Each structure stands twice: as C-alpha cells, then as structure tokens.
Amino acid sequence: MKKQLLTLIVALVACATVASAQGRRGLRINEVMVTNDSSVVDDYGRHVAWIELFNSTFAPLEISSVYLTNDKNQPKLYPVPLGDVNTEIPPRQHVVFWADGEPNKGTFHTSFVLTPGQDNWIGIYDANGTTLIDEVLIPANLAPNTTYARTIDGEGIWEVRDGGDKYITPSSNNVIVDTNSKVDMFAQQDKDGFAMTIMAMCIVFTALLVLCLCFLAISRIGARVLRSNKIKSAGMTPRELTREEHPEHDSGEEIAAITMALHEHLNAHDAENTILTINKVKRAYSPWSSKIYSLRELPHR
Fold first, then answer.
1. Domain chopping of the chain, boundaries
2. What is the model's pTM?
3. Residues 206-246: tens digit of each pLDDT
4. Domain 24-177 has CATH 3.10.20.740
5. Residue 275 CB: number of other CB atoms within 10 A?
6. Angle at Cα 254 formed by Cα 244 and Cα 215, nearest 5°?
7. CB neighbours of 42 closer than 8 A, spacing ≥ 6?
8. Closest of 36, 61, 48 to residue 145, by C-alpha
9. CB atoms within 10 A of CB 250
C-alpha cells in the first residue's frame, strides 16, 4: 500500500513538473528597449533599459524558476528569484524586467545590462538551465527611446517602434485598438442618424408586436382550457359536441344576472344597525410627561 501511495505521489509530481514546463514554453520576449533616455521609468524613477515578457498561454504562468541572460555561454546568468507573488503572470498579460545590472534592487532588476550601439542577444532558459524557451537578437542600430517589438503579442515578426504611429507599449498589448471599424463605417454611411433611428423604432415596435401576439396566444389557450373544463363538468367530451355546440365565454349580462339571483335568493345583503354607540377610551396617563409639570408653567403666587 505504501509503495502504491509513493508511486502515485511521484507520478503526480512528475505530471505537475511536465505541465509546468509545458506552460513555461508559452513565455515570450515581447518588447525590448536598449537605450532609455526619456521613456518610462523603473520603480526607482530611473531611465534604464527594459525587457518585456509575455504570457502567451490562457492560464497563469509562474516564471520564478526561469533564467534571463544576454550571454549564450551563461544561460543561468540571472535566475528569477523565488518567493515573489508578482512572478506569476496572469493569462495573456505582461511583465517588465529592468536590465540595469542591479539585482539587489528587486526581483525585476536583472544582473546584466544591455549595451547600446551593438547587437544584444537576449534569451530565456527553463529551470534546467539548458532548454531555451525564447530568444531575440536586438539590432545594433536601434535608436534611443525606440523599442524592438513583436507586431502581435507573443507572435509575429519583429519591428522597430519609435512611439509615433507605432506605439511603445511596456506592460501593455503591442496592438492597441483605439477605434471601432464598425462604428466608423456606420458614422460614414449614416451621418445624420436617420438609419439608426429607424432601426431602433423597428426593434421597439417588433418587440411590442411579439408581446401582443404572446398575450393573444395566452388568452386563446386560456379560453380553450375554460371551454374544455365546462364540457367536462357537463359529463361530456369535446368530441361529442359539434363546433356550434361548444360553449363560449359567459357574457357580462349573464354573470350579472346570476349574481343578482344569488343575492335575492340568499338574502345576502348587509344589515346595518341604526344605533350609534360612543365608548370612552381610557388612555394611559404618565405624570412625568404631563404639561402641568413642565417648566413652561407660570409660577404660583
């Protein structure tokens, strides 16, 4: 029994390890800035180079066991520390590492720096230090305050972004949708809003028509059930009666006549008493709240 339990635990640990490794393969280098003179600042208010990573999976991704490096000969150059809750990247989200060479400043400050004016290779290695998860080669001619980024988060080709038409997006999506094509098209085709007004009115009146049909159908069903109950109370079946013989709704005159007949027969009218009785109601008297003991009373002489 103990051997079976131990085997099960080992199998579960192995499955968890494999699943974690498979998940970390969805980690991607998404955007890099080598020379930062006037762009974003780190948590100390400084302009330093930065590396954005992206979780391309649809599940949270723990990256505290991976390595960041800019040297192929030293794959374990910067191990992402354990114990920081911020190292778990939510699904399809980003995290930024500051390449300032000062890991003592926090989890997201690497032990290496990026050198302007030359090619910079950046790689991510798995926990074993040998499996390369992702890599990118930053060109040497990258101007200051520009980034080298993917066209689409986690995939696509790499391009240079200068902050103009192509936004610089640390900790954000590389594709920023600031317009709605359908809304723009509708605004071009219907500048005065007549089509939208007609469409809205058609939707409202259609809903009212459907509601009326529902009420009509419910009333028809209720009338049919009522006629069926009348036929059954007479000891007959609907098949025994022709369509002309089927009872209809009782009219208002019939209902009034039946009510008056019952009233006269049962003499169920109200008998009113002509004697008026007045009862005196005693109320609880509390001396402490009486006005005769209040301070507003004039003093006696």
1. 24-177, 179-255
2. 0.57
3. 999 999 999 999 988 988 888 778 777 767 666 655 555 55
4. no
5. 4
6. 70
7. 48, 50, 98, 100, 109
8. 36
9. 12
